Fold this sequence. Notes:
The chain is an alpha/beta fold. It has twelve helices and twelve strands.
Amino acid sequence: MIVELSVLSVGDVFSPMLIKVTVLPGDGIGPEVTKQAVRVLEGLATAFGHELTCTQKDIGGAALKSSKDPLPNDTLQACLSSGAVLLGAVGGPSFDSFPSHLRPESGLLRLRRELGVFANLRPATCYPSLEDCSPLRADIVKGTDILIVRELLGGIYYGEPRLIQGPTGDRSATDTMRYTEKEIERVARVAFELARSRRRNLVSVDKANVLDCSRLWRDVVTRISQDYVDVKTSHMYVDSAAMALVSHPADFDVVLTENMFGDILSDQAASVVGSLGMLGSASVGGPVGLYEPIHGSAPDIAGQNIANPVGAILSVAMLLRHSFKLKREASCVESSVAGVLAAGYRTRDVAKHGHGCLSTEEIGGKIAEAIRVAAACTENVAS
């Protein structure tokens, strides 16, 4: 297996630091993938000489079972007092009949609001070794490297009023999409700054031909773009963007959009590059960042040791980069994942037909070992 070492520069000064993380395994496959993410984080901290402190707490369905609250106060306080939060997944069909304020997802929405994380970063990269895993042709997905920047604390997921009213048989439901100029501006600036560090191409996605929220969104983004004349800015309707994501995904660089559209488009992008299990995410903007794979709890495969932990492990890389500014360590995780995949090691969701696949624990072990080897090689070269 070949692991890229170019990101680990000879002569770099290694400055040990405290990495304090609250871990929320959650529901379904969350505990399985989070276990491997923590395993990688532990190995990386040892390899680079950092001190790691992990505090595990319940959230979602697990918290409902233990405390009848999807976000217990002790969980929230642990998150607020940490340097970053690593989440597995929440939810499951056994909670579908619960009232909305007691659904596992309500705990996650509250956590995002309490942490103040208004910008969700979701990279979707097609690894050369996985081009044949996409449902699209390899020549279409080749070179795909998208960063979706999703507004996370506004829009229809948080807008009021939201209610169901009327007698059974004659009920009506109301959800409210609402955005302020300040909410749009702050996430737009995050997206433009990130575009500057990439290929300087930003597409803002809305539905301005129908929705007033989208008309405001487009107006604000257009205004903010004047401060970033070095970034090529364009606008697309969400339905057109969805079509373009499957017809020419490699054309996209940074995609900026609102909460619900971002939720949908990022899952679509994950399928384009091979699997929901491959993508991590970072929710930033507040004092404590929240990091999680974008897949759900997948209760149908929970407990079978077959879930793909790569999304959770890549979330660790984002945690290191954004919350602790450890770019070298983050790049080591990312290159180790790429090296393991290039060597042909896969979980079931991205395994080639007729080829064997490894378990959740086995893939986690391969990546942890790759990190150890990469760190050791760098130390030997530097000495």
